[in-house]
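Repro:
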Amino acid sequence: MSTSATRMPAIFFGHGSPMNALEDNRYTAAWEQLGASVALRQPKAILSISAHWYTRGIGVTAMPQPKTIHDFGGFPQALFDVRYPAPGDPALAAQVRDLLAPLDVTMDQSWGLDHGTWSVLVKAFPKADVPVIQLSIDATQPAQFHFDLGRKLAVLREQGVLIIGSGDVVHNLRLMTRGGPPRRTIGRCVSTTTSARRC
């Protein structure tokens, strides 16, 4: 196969409510179809950048079995019961660290897969058999910094790594006014280390 035929895509998921992990709707149907089409190309691993892991500095999950993080409240117990037991990939995490040198990238052992990652992957890759790592978003840096990170990481696509971003415009659903503007601006949660606090 040629390089262009084997290169994995980079995909952004507007993940919306975490309830999508339990529901069947037009969004989840699209995620399922997208995952099935990518799975035919047999991705080696998934690198996820989730809107829910904001840190000071950069971290990458480096454990062999990342936990499923339920970083939300006020939802039915069935959502808290969801587990996404995909393996991690410490070797890929180390490669990400090396690609981003000379930046200091923490090999994180405490975070895991937050709902920005697993709520879409449970639909797109329901077997949870593709290794998944997460890269944090450095809240102290501007957009250009993150764009430059993406350019450095793009080489992973040639090696069979699917790169995904996950987030949305509105995250605090209780403060969202349907059919109108938000009631107020929501601030970002930022931790002092690479283990972000829950919002």
